[in-house]
Design goal:
The complex is a heterodimer of chains A (about 475) and B (about 90). Chain A contains 17 helices and 13 strands. With about 475 residues, chain A is an alpha/beta fold. Chain A has an eleven-stranded mixed β-sheet, sandwiched between helices. In chain A, strands 4-5 form a two-stranded antiparallel sheet. In chain A, strand 4 and strand 5 form a beta hairpin. In chain B, strands 1-2 form a two-stranded antiparallel sheet. Classes of the chains: A alpha/beta (about 475), B mainly alpha (about 90). At the A-B interface, helix 11, helix 12, helix 13, helix 14 and helix 16 of A face helix 1 and helix 2 of B.
Chain lengths: ~475, ~90
């Protein structure tokens, strides 16, 4: 389902169409936390009458917003996030608050308090996370646009596993006001579509300076959808060699190689680049330390006193202790303990500050390469979507440390980065990732459009039977 | 790291852990330690910490005018217990 196809349908029917789909898919995908039935239809705007799904960490006035956590299972925001206002002004209609990993702190969507979200291509497989519900609804053709958030790769990885387009623009390109935070120095608003043109249009609506988010950018917002140009003649593109080499699945490499050859045939100038191997092995631990430390601090306000689910007690300490003990899953508690460990004064130098310094070295290395090329290309993941009952990967292998975590570079450096489908393995989608220089979204969309032309997967969705 | 140490850490974060949860964290710390060894290999001498992606700062002060105000009703809408416009919590001073 794409925006243009929906526009051929009378406005009055679009919402009913999407709602029927969202409801019909719920038993199979478990993608929605709240289904929104009574949203008003506005009569104009770039997204006039277009059904949109929102990740459940996006504040919606009067609509429950739980971040898939028991501690917020009764929380109803009294204000809209800036992007919710922008989408409403553009005429969008909201139909779902979507499932996610609890507090966005995961990459599988297995940790949602409503249970896991299922991949439309194989219900026994994960969608990826943390924005899995949004990815699933777009991939299953229920909505043409769904909003997520991306702190490590939480939009781009589910996009790869679900065979759709996932965009994380530059840091500050989209306001984060009203998004329940995870790690403020890494958090971005991102989104899913079924094609590049819709992705470009969505950014026109979502982007822009917002005085309510002091990290939002003054950079001009372009009419990205009108500027699209699939001509890659003379474009300088770099294959991310460390990622390529770390992938053991030859069929994923072959699909990637085919795209590279086609880009070269179209006139792109391709080279392979390698960064320091030891530095690349630090991608995951660097992210893990910074993200958990920031999350621990950000979520100290979840205490049941002013909002959220409160468990009574004899003292304030008892209330907070009982509320937080019952309100967070074991998974989240683990993350908070590790995060706080890095924040202790005696550990800061060795852990948090070390990670922040390594972050700088990683970003400087990548920016140095991006002076020479327009984009860095790599398979988004070394595998198809894992099965729901898969044990976790070997967290010290290159495949895990590099191939499964390379997209975090976009968050470290605030670089625009997107994933789009590059084919299938065993009838399951695989994706390609593009990362560009900051605020070069226009270039990123052009390269993506060229790849979409090569794959022929524009608008592809999976009918869930 | 002992179970009691992990539980103490958790209590500082205002939640309790079961023995099983504490044991899981101890196991996770073992992997975490091995990943930290990877960071130790990197020479970060004279490298500044990177706190945010860009060094662009918002450098203006808004006018000192009330803006984006929530009504008392709205502020209290999500509070579990209220009384006469206040948040009710257990007695703090005894």
């Amino acid at each position: 389902m794409d925006i243009r196809t929906l526009e051929e349908m009378p406005i009055s029917e679009r919402k009913a169409y999407a709602l029927k789909k969202v409801k019909g898919l719920q038993d199979k995908l478990n993608a929605s936390i709240t289904i929104i039935e009574d949203d008003e239809v506005k009569a104009d705007g770039k997204l006039m009458g277009i059904p949109v799904a929102l990740k459940d960490n996006i504040s919606t006035k009067g609509i429950k917003t739980t971040a898939a956590s028991d501690i917020l299972d009764n929380y109803v925001p009294v204000y809209d996030a800036t992007i919710v206002k922008k989408l409403k002004e553009a005429g969008a209609i909201f139909v779902s608050k979507t499932s996610m990993d609890e507090l966005a702190m995961g990459g599988t969507n297995r940790t949602a308090n409503i249970g896991p979200c299922h991949n439309p291509y194989d219900l026994d497989r994960i969608t990826g996370g943390s924005s899995g519900g949004s990815a699933a609804l777009v991939a299953a053709g229920a909505v043409p646009l769904a909003i997520g958030s991306d702190t490590g790769d939480s939009v781009r990885k589910p996009a790869a596993y679900c065979g759709i387009v996932g965009v994380k623009p530059s840091y500050g390109r989209i306001s984060r006001y009203g998004i329940i935070p995870y790690a403020s120095s890494l958090d971005h608003v991102g989104y899913f579509t079924t094609n590049v043109e819709d992705a470009a249009l969505a950014l026109e609506v979502l982007a822009g300076r917002d005085d309510l988010d002091m990290t939002s950018s003054y950079e001009e917002v372009l009419e990205y959808s009108k500027l699209l140009d699939a001509n890659v003649k003379g474009r300088r593109l770099a294959i991310f060699g460390n990622v390529y080499d770390a992938i053991s699945d030859s069929s994923i490499k072959e699909a990637f190689d085919k795209i590279i050859v086609s880009l070269e045939d179209k006139g792109a100038i391709i080279k392979k680049v390698y960064f320091d191997g030891d530095l690349m092995k630090c991608l995951f631990p660097t992210y893990f330390i910074i993200a958990n430390a920031e999350a621990t601090a950000n979520h100290s306000n979840l205490d049941g006193v002013r909002f959220g689910h409160r468990i009574d007690g004899d003292s304030m300490e008892d209330v907070m202790m009982a509320t937080r003990t019952r309100g967070f899953s074991s998974f989240i508690k683990k993350r908070f303990v590790i995060g706080s460990y890095s924040l202790f004064e005696e550990n800061q130098e060795r852990l948090l500050k070390k990670a922040q310094r390594v972050r700088r070295l990683i970003v400087e290395a990548v920016l140095n390469e991006l002076k020479e090329v327009d984009a860095l290309l790599a398979p988004a993941s070394g595998s198809i979507a894992p099965r729901l009952d898969d044990p976790s990967s070997d967290e010290l292998s290159d495949e895990y440390l590099i191939a499964e975590n390379h997209m975090v570079i976009g968050n470290f450096g605030g670089l625009p980065s997107m994933t789009l489908p590059m084919g299938f393995k065993d009838d399951l989608p695989i994706g390609i990732n593009i990362t560009c220089n900051a605020f070069k979204e226009e270039e990123m969309f052009d390269i993506a459009l060229a790849i979409e032309d090569i794959t022929g997967l524009k608008g592809h969705v999976k009918e869930v039977l | 790291m002992e179970i009691s140490e992990v539980k103490k850490l958790a209590e500082m974060l205002m939640f309790k852990l079961s023995d099983e949860e504490a044991q899981e964290i101890i196991e996770e710390f073992k992997t975490f330690d091995r990943q930290l060894a990877l960071l130790d290999k990197i020479d970060t001498e004279a490298v500044d910490e990177m706190i945010f992606p860009f060094d662009v700062k918002t450098s203006f002060l808004r006018d000192d005018e009330a803006d984006h105000i929530l009504s008392q009703d709205d502020v209290l809408k999500n509070v579990a217990k209220t009384k006469q416009g206040h948040v009710v919590v257990p007695k703090v001073v005894r």
